[in-house]
Amino acid sequence: MFFHKDAYLDNNATTRVDKSVTAVIRKVLRKCYGNPSSLYKAAHLSKEILEESRRTFAATIGAGDEEIIFTGCASEANNQVLISLFDRYAPGKKTILSSPIEHPSIISTLTYLEKKGAIVHFLPVDSTGLVLMDKLPDLIDNDTFLVVCMFANNETGSVQDIKTIARIAHAHGALFLCDCVQAIGKIPINVREQDLDYATFSAHKIHGPKGVGALYIKNGAPISPFIHGGHQEAGLRAGTEGLHNIAGFAQAAKKLPGLLNKYSKNAELKKNFILRLREIKPDVIINTPPVSSLPNTINVTFPGIDNAVLIAVFDYYGIAVSAGSACSTPDNKASHVLKAIGLTDDQARRSIRFSMSDSTTRRDITFILDVIRKFLMKKTPQVNMIAPSFLNKTVLFDDRTYILDVRFWYDKVKIKSLPNAHEASFFSFSRYLCRLPRDKNIIVVCQGGFYSPMIAFYCKRKGFKNVGFLMSGMEGWKAAQPELYKRFSGQNVVKLQPRGYNAILPH
Ligand code: PLP
Fold this sequence. Notes:
It is a single chain. By secondary structure, this protein is of the alpha/beta class. Helix content is 36%, strand content 14%. It contains 19 helices and 18 strands. The protein has helices spanning 19-31, 41-60, 74-89, 104-115, 136-139, 162-171, 232-235, 243-254, 256-264, 266-280, 307-316, 336-340, 345-348, 362-376, 393-396, 409-414, 452-461, 473-480, 482-488, and strands spanning 7-8, 68-71, 95-98, 119-122, 144-148, 175-179, 198-202, 213-217, 285-286, 297-301, 319-320, 351-355, 384-386, 401-405, 422-423, 441-445, 467-470, 494-495. The chain has a seven-stranded mixed beta sheet with strand order 2-8-7-6-5-3-4, with helices on both faces. The protein has a six-stranded parallel beta sheet with strand order 13-17-16-14-15-18. β5 (144-148), α6 and β6 (175-179) form a beta-alpha-beta unit. It is globular. The model has no long low-confidence stretch (mean pLDDT 95). Pyridoxal-5'-phosphate is lined by residues 73-75, 103, 105, 150, 154, 179, 181-182, 202, 213, 326. Pyridoxal-5'-phosphate binds next to α3.
């Protein structure tokens, strides 16, 4: 097996920051320290950059400058529209129509609003995540003040017929919010042509910085502030603007035409990837629609394969992919999107999302397929998969057993550690490696059995011979061994000391 350069195929989670964006951010941080709200000279440049950034971004989506406000992220923008419209319309009108495959920043906010009296209806979707349009007129009525539907789905890549949804919403007197976070840069967006009332965007999906989003509010559409305070962003988003991030966002937006063009070339790579994948494993299920989907996204169910193990094997070879939305990754709860398109919990846990960037190459795809082929032939490194029932009293207290607990602190609050566990941090794990014994049977433990395989494979790569991970993690073990949990959990737990301190950022 050859090692290719790292292959990053998790671009729907976030993208690498473009060099020109970094340059702009550094320049703004160095030169534009004046507060854009101040009136003296030192602030003029800051204000100018803020407004120029707004003009640049607005132009890329066909909006007017006065229709854009910058926010802390797209999640905030989604929250702002939903909550401020509910506050405005309820109790006169209380119904919101949405889809069950929206991003958590929509779904969770809808759940919050339901507790405050909102009525939420979900449009059904087909097995690839496309909204069943013919059901839309049946579900919308005079009580519906808002229709919410994402342009493109982050997990399956399905692209909705936004124009038709907008038309039906407007015909019934409802406003339309479209989450365009995954669509921008990958497919053309024009808020006028698509007739959107609200649209949300995030810089870090288009090679911009994290921590800045944008909200499009059509001229005259109602909206209220979400963060209250100062008068920034026309009084709609208080807080001193993160000017460097906003300028970085605008710089990334300037590159959108080129990005669109490059992404369109992904479609061929994607087709080829699916074809070759089917040759290697004919029973894969492709959860992405063949047409009406993003050119960069492929969601695949691998029957018989635990996605946590395959993701860990990929990680071993420097390939970054994910199981679904980055917002729900550490739990490995079955994705709400995959469940909505009809997958069972088990199928959802066997699914992986590959999301290419504009610079993904044919060689990257060949490398990934090669890893999958070798994995299926059991020619990739193996680690022990330890069932919770196997980890009984004898194994637990055997001198050769070494429990390595890599859980996050908030998980340990919910479930106590195994007896004699050695605790290390998942995210800075390399600094703990020198503390591990080479002559013992290492069992890596996490909360649900989802991220421990990555550490087990990492140890394997570093030459540890006997390494395994606890399948279904502490949750599974607690359920399988309630007596042992009650008697011994939390006893004799050792906190390992990492090698070196302050080594957080590489120089
Ligand atoms: N909407 C969609 C479809 C997304 O994919 C994401 C991020 O993954 C968001 C909203 C949230 O964006 P942000 O990270 O800027 O809050």
